Amino acid sequence: MEEKKNEKNSLDEQGVIFLSGPINQATADHICQKIIEFSISGKKEYIQLIVNSPGGELSAGFAIIDIMAWSSVPIYTTGIGMVASMGLLIFMSGQKGRRVITNNTSLLSHRFWSLQIGNHSQLLAQRKQQDIEHQRILNHYLKHTNIKSIPELESSILRDVDTWLTPEEAVQYGIADIIEK
What we know:
Blueprint: H1 2-14, E1 16-20, H2 25-41, E2 47-53, H3 58-70, E3 75-84, H4 86-92, E4 99-102, E5 106-109, H5 120-144, H6 150-156, E6 163-165, H7 167-172, E7 178-180
Parallel strand pairs: 1-2, 2-3, 3-4, 3-5, 4-7
Antiparallel strand pairs: 5-6
Helix pairs in contact: 2-3, 3-4
């Protein structure tokens, strides 16, 4: 247990945050808290966010993205293992020029899905929220990649089916900047 605590302190000392596993409210709370702490302390030149995630909840992921944008300290991202779905949106939010992926990283881009239940009025309200979320995702891709239009985006990496990308394709589309070999 002591070794794990020392490892955590060492990462904190280096300004490193590790995002691993599914993204949910607890994950978002932890990541946001760390970004806020590093930003307020003013002791770091940059924050290194390492992403290895299959994705997860949209609201939790966008909370992380919003805090990344708020941070007074630049956030560099590194993708390892699997960077998928909401994990990909968080990864691409890193400082342009400093978004690094390793050579063996698997990247997945896809449209979000949800399962809804409720009465007719609830379903209509949920549909409005889904439309808002879909537009938010489209705008995020257009802001953080080199894709310039929604038709281009929907025909290349945000299609009706899962789109797996090689690290080279991620750089080509402007999702990542550097492949660490």
